[in-house]
Every structure is written in C-alpha cells, then in structure tokens.
Amino acid sequence: YGSFLFRALDWGVFSVSSKIVHEFHAEKRAQKHINLLKKFVSSETKGKTILDIGASEGTFLKKLGESYQTVARFAVEPGNNFSKLIDSGVLQVWPSFDLIPADSKFDLITMWHVLEHIRDPRSFVKKMARHCLPGGYVFIEVPDADKYDTTMRPYHIDHVVHFSGHTLSKLLLEEGFIVLGIESDPEVLMDELY
Known about the structure:
By secondary structure, this protein is of the alpha/beta class. The chain has seven helices and five strands; from the N terminus they run H-H-H-E-H-E-H-E-E-H-E-H.
C-alpha cells in the first residue's frame, strides 16, 4: 500500500481513467458478482440495504443500481480518488469501516477481495456481524489458497492472510454466521482461483 503508484491513485495524482477500469475488467466482474447474488438472494429487493466494503471506483454498486433501483446502496472506500468516482446514487460512502454508525444495519454486505488485505480478519468479521441484519447475507470473495499452484501468481505482497474454503468457513462459523455455500464457478467469480 505504500507504493508510489497505489498512493498516487489514492491521492488523486493519477486519475482512475475509463481505460484502467476497462483493463481491470470492472464491468465484467461486477456483472459476475450480481449473477452470484442472484444464485443465493431472493429477487425481492424492495426496501433492502446493501453495504459494499472496499467499493473501489463503484462499478459493482453502479451495476447493482441499474438492476435493482429500489436497493439502498452504501459503501466503504478508504481511497479518496476512488471514492470520488462512486455513483451519486450511493447514499453514503464511509472512508473507514469503523466510521459506520453502530446502529447501521444492512440486509446484504459484500466484500470482493478485501478480507485477504485485513491484518486481523477475525476482529473485522466480528464488527461486520454487528452490521448485518438478522437473516441478512454476507458475500466474500477471496483468493482460494487450495488452488494455489507452484507459481507465485496468487501471492501478492498486499495479501496479508490467505484463505481456503475450509479456513474461511471456519472463521465465519466461529463468529456466528451460517455458511450457505462456497462457490467456485468461474461464471460468477473473477476467475478459477477465487
């Protein structure tokens, strides 16, 4: 996170251009994530609230708003330059998870490639549970350590924790969640390693 490129994007020295969003396959990834939600969550969305943790430039929330206009969308995005790009239809963007008011609860919480960046994932999951409504859903996408091969491709210097389906499920169960499923279908995930 201390690299010049990362900090430059965060500070706004470099802008997140449509070219970067395209190269990052943001639209394609967002649609895959929406397809994943549809597999587990009822299509009845009126009055529902969603919190996307680590929203980046907001492509997922934008696509979600296009598909489900009645969903109240909220975000956590610490990067100043990224958070400025988030769709104006998002009701609130917090720069830190810890700044969300204690009484704010959500029907759905998503984290697409966030948990592997958290130094204390257990503490984070405990806090997240406090913001999830009873009967609510949490979707977490992380690299799958069981699928790592002999290359260094899945390892990133900014990934401080690595999960398998088993270890992620164990963490969630220990913190009071019910694990409904582990998905590995590349049609609804970034690619086969997630």
